[in-house]
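Hey, can you fold this?
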Amino acid sequence: MKNIAVIPGSFDPITLGHLDIIKRSAVLFDVVHVSVLNNASKQGFFTIEERIEMISEAVKDIPNVEVEYFQGLLVDYCNKVGAKQIVRGLRAVSDFEYEMQLTSMNKKLDDDLETLYMMTNNQYSFISSSMTKDVAKYGGDVSSIVPPNVELALKQKYAEINRRP
């Protein structure tokens, strides 16, 4: 039986902090599903398809990582792919309260699921997708916080936005 984990998130866009968690999880599990969700409470900057493409490119050299879209309950998705573990990255203590609420609800819905928290590498602890987009929006250098393909996608997206009347 394979040891399967799910790393859910909006990944809008994926950062090196996300990639750090994915790479470290890929060492611990036989299969890691990076599961892209559409957060209804946030307006997406990149489409789901663009996010999946960027993530797939960033993880192409990690053979046991699969990138997919899902909607609905995370526990249902985990059951569908045979995962018994959810991996969540933590940047700081401030992330924990929200994560604990999610974990408690998931545990209530499916007592067999375990959530594992992984602290991101200190060099990435300040990075968020929102902050990354803000820096890129004003022409700041994001090359040290996102994969090269994401840096290019951010530049292209903002150039396209700035061309609009």
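Oh, and this one too while you're at it.
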Amino acid sequence: MLTKEKVQEFLKEIEVDDLVNNLQIMGNDVYIDMTAHSPAMHEKKNWKLP
């Protein structure tokens, strides 16, 4: 099961934790509000939790 701590650790590993404004976990769904340093959509990435 996902926990907030596991998700926060993962975000630190991929070095985007400083961009996160809000993090919510509802069951197996993770909702992350982030501030992008660039408005370009080319930076979209697909990440998978370990």
